[in-house]
Q: What sequence folds into this?
């Protein structure tokens, strides 16, 4: 702690990139109001909030679903671990994809589609009574964790020059809001209705994911930070000439 206090700087002496040195440092409330007034960012909030909310929900209820469908606690632990592994792999793949192509909207739509078909695969395999098919479905569902790096980076690009913590904070708050509602609702359904509750909870999550897909389709891919970096690079090239 002492080393952190005395040796670490709050920020570097020079900005790490051209855009990081031009971010707005206005009052947080003013930046927040500006983002809420942006219809495109509101669409991103809905997509990110719903999809990441479903991910948080699965992280909580996958073990409960497995137990209600007759699987042991050990099996439920395996499903949870495979779910996390799928998230790591999905985040690496789609994170690299958007870093190379800058096609954030395509990546968001892919994640939303997986969020729709993942629950179908999970519920279908749970009825088989075998472990390995459920592991495959859990791995597929884990890919939805890729919404975290993709969505946050998309938000930063879209809202530039507003500071990153503001847009990221709003996205995460929206995800927490939806996540709490869906987790409580699905847990209650499963607890009260047993196996039928497993089915109804998955249907509810599929409907929510479909809404998330809708917003991912209509959101505009307005990459303001990337446009600024390109214009700055062109200006520097012209200045050198």
A:
């Amino acid at each position: 702690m002492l080393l952190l206090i005395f040796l670490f700087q709050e920020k570097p002496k020079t900005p790490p990139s051209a855009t990081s040195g031009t971010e707005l440092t206005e009052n947080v409330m003013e930046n927040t109001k500006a983002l809420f007034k942006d219809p495109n960012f509101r669409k991103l909030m809905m997509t990110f909030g719903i999809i990441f909310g479903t991910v948080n929900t699965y992280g909580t209820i996958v073990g409960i679903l497995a137990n209600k469908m007759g699987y042991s606690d050990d099996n439920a632990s395996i499903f949870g671990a495979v779910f996390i592994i799928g998230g790591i792999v999905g985040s690496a793949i789609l994170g690299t994809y958007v870093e190379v192509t800058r096609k954030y909207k395509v990546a968001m739509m892919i994640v939303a589609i997986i969020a729709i078909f993942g629950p179908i695969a999970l519920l279908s395999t749970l009825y088989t009574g075998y472990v390995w098919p459920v592991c495959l479905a859990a791995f597929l569902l884990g890919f939805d964790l890729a919404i975290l790096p993709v969505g946050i980076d998309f938000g930063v690009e879209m809202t530039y020059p507003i500071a990153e913590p503001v847009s990221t904070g709003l996205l995460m708050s929206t995800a927490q809001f939806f996540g709490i509602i869906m987790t409580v609702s699905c847990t209650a359904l499963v607890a009260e209705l047993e196996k039928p509750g497993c089915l109804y909870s998955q249907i509810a999550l599929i409907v929510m994911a479909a809404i998330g897909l809708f917003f991912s389709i209509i959101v505009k891919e307005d990459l303001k930070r990337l446009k600024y970096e390109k214009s700055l690079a062109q200006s520097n090239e012209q200045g050198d000439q």
User: Anything to note?
Assistant: The radius of gyration is 21 Å. Residues 67 and 114 are 24 Å apart (CA to CA). The chain has one domain: 41-227. DSSP finds ten helices and no strands in the chain.
